[in-house]
Amino acid sequence: MTKTIILIPSRLAATRLPNKPLLKINDIAIINHVYQKAKSSKIGEVFVATGDKEIFDEVKKIDGKCILTEKEHQTGTDRIFEAYQKLKIKDVDYVINLQGDEPMINIEDIKNLNRNAIKNKSEITTLACKIEDKKSLCKSDIVKVITDEKISKENMSRANTFSRKISFSYNTNIYHHIGIYMYKVSILEKFVNLRQSKNEIDLKLEQLRAIDNNMKINVVLAKSSPIGVDTEEDFLELKKIMNYKN
């Protein structure tokens, strides 16, 4: 049976929204909302990977599993690989890297990502959803993925590239990228041992390291578009929505 674990990289040093993981919604820190979503998917063991003792202590408050890593890492994927090595869990086939600022990610989307990656024996798999508002194409804080073919509930497609701003036709296969990746363990190790590419550094998109090294990323269609938390405005909007749902 295929074995998957979920690792959630988290750090306090976000420049646009300091201490983001510890901000609370309904008296629960953002990082713990994400942890609980991952655990509810029942895919496999879940761990937060962080270099910050404050985040470690916050996760422990809900009896969550957390592992301390080096404080400085180039990317979240580099951080989860260190955590994976330290955990020494046997017979792991896949590692899911779930971003720590996606507290509204759909549990069914996580499950669907896992199913599709295993079914297709994918090297790297990620999620994306449809773009309903054309204005999103010009918003640099919304990452877009362009796929080779149209994706649907039944069909995923290979990512051609990722970008922050799109200037060409809206009718091409452009989707709103969601911050989650699923790696074959061997591919994860290969990825973190590659040098950061120029595109990755310039656009601050670590997935371009894979694209620039001809690594295949499959894209699965998500049911819903979660709200990532990058700014104070994002946080206030998310808090309003989650307070209402509660």
What are the SSEs and their pairings?
Blueprint: E1 4-10, E2 24-25, E3 28-29, H1 30-40, E4 46-50, H2 53-60, E5 66-68, H3 76-87, E6 94-98, H4 107-120, E7 124-129, E8 144-147, E9 157-163, E10 174-184, H5 185-192, H6 198-203, H7 207-212, E11 217-221, H8 232-245
Task: Describe the protein's architecture and organization.
Helices cover 32% and strands 23% of the residues. The protein has eight helices and eleven strands. By secondary structure, the protein is α/β, with parallel strands linked by helices. The N and C termini lie far apart (37 Å). The model has no long low-confidence stretch (mean pLDDT 91). The strands form two sheets. It has a five-stranded mixed beta barrel.
Features:
246 residues; alpha/beta; five-stranded mixed barrel; 8 helices; 32% helix
Please summarize what this structure is.
This protein has 246 residues and is α/β, with parallel strands linked by helices. 32% of the residues lie in helices and 23% in strands.
